[in-house]
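lol ok so funny story. i was supposed to be doing the assay writeup but got distracted and ended up predicting the structure for this chain instead. priorities right. anyway since i did it might as well share w the group, maybe its usefull for someone
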Amino acid sequence: MQVWSKMDFGAGEIIFLDITQKEDMLQVEYPNYFLLYMGWYQDRYIISIIQNFDWTHPVQQYETAERNQLPKLLTEAVRLVEKESQSAGAI
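and the output, tada:
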């Protein structure tokens, strides 16, 4: 079992989770039209924070080739998406 499958995603709801190393691995939906997405692209993992389904302009993106960096990067991404989602709801 991969570490990210047991992570706390806060207010997010896991929409998709596949623990194999392939393009689409994880998608978590947050309030106010935010998504946290993770996938494997040839030689690296990419974690993206998406707002309003605008995949061409992520709010933030993290990349690593090292699997052991994923818990740290996912934790950072969850903190950011929670903050952004809450801020968007306060407007």
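The chain has one domain: 3-89. Helices lie at 70-89.
back to the writeup now i swear
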